[in-house]
């Protein structure tokens, strides 16, 4: 039987003077294979032309449609309404800069993390454009690839208790990023340099390890494995100095 869905959506536009945060309710008839992203488009077309939310790919690749759906950070384009009750609560991701309604700016944070962690290969080797590509062990290349699959959606930070309290916490996305470069044999940063970067309360020592990030990551990244790798690597540094 066709259901009538109730979308209770957080509304607030920080650019409109005196606008107040509130929840507005919109009703929509459920159609087969309806997902939250398509439902929001229909609401915007038929009922609320000023509703703000983000999307690009509609295929779980760009990470821009992440939001809180019934209290859980996840991707709107990958969430079927048939998996949800009739009452659907939509809120923007916490932690990131609010742009309006369901739209937040994850880009500022991810760019900041890239600069802070210097997310590029650090090497003294001279770049020779005509040289053959360096070989890498297949198993290691696969491990690095697994970390590279992060779509920077921000769900892990929205679901992380530490990130809500400490705004400079690297979170799973930041730790995963640093793990990716630590694993890469082409990056010549020393263990001591990694230690300086990541062994702080804003880094790996601030993580309480309950793995909410792992539960909500829509790409199923092996976050537990990456965190263990970083901890193991960092635990030996003070004794090797
Ligand atoms: S394990 Fe917990 S504290 Fe650590 S990054 Fe994940 S959600 Fe945050
Ligand atoms: S680690 Fe997962 S949840 Fe976090 S930003 Fe990357 S894809 Fe999203
Ligand atoms: S629109 Fe790109 S991940 Fe949902």
Describe this structure in words.
It is built from ten helices and seven strands. The longest helix is centred in the last third of the chain and has 13 residues. It is α+β, with helices and mostly antiparallel strands. α6 packs across α9. The strands form two sheets. It has a five-stranded mixed beta sheet. β3 and β4 form a beta hairpin. It binds iron/sulfur cluster (2 copies) and FE2/S2 (inorganic) cluster. The site of FE2/S2 (inorganic) cluster has 12 residues, from loops.
Write a short abstract of this structure:
The chain has 10 helices and 7 strands. It has helices at 36-46, 106-116, 138-148, 155-158, 161-165, 171-183, 191-198, 212-216, 223-235, 237-240, and strands at residues 4-11, 22-29, 66-69, 72-75, 87-91, 97-100, 103-105.
Fold blueprint:
Elements: E1 4-11, E2 22-29, H1 36-46, E3 66-69, E4 72-75, E5 87-91, E6 97-100, E7 103-105, H2 106-116, H3 138-148, H4 155-158, H5 161-165, H6 171-183, H7 191-198, H8 212-216, H9 223-235, H10 237-240
The structure holds iron/sulfur cluster (SF4) (2 copies) and FE2/S2 (inorganic) cluster.
CATH topology assignment of the largest domain: Fumarate Reductase Iron-sulfur Protein, Chain B, domain 2
Report on the biggest sheet: 5 strands, mixed
Low-confidence spans: pLDDT under 50, at least 5 residues? Answer: none
How do the strands of the widest beta sheet line up side by side?
Answer: 2-1-5-3-4
User: What characteristic shape results from the CA principal axes?
Assistant: elongated
- Terminal Cα separation, in Å? 68 Å
Share of β-strand residues: 5-15%
Number of domains: 2
Order of helices and strands: EEHEEEEEHHHHHHHHH
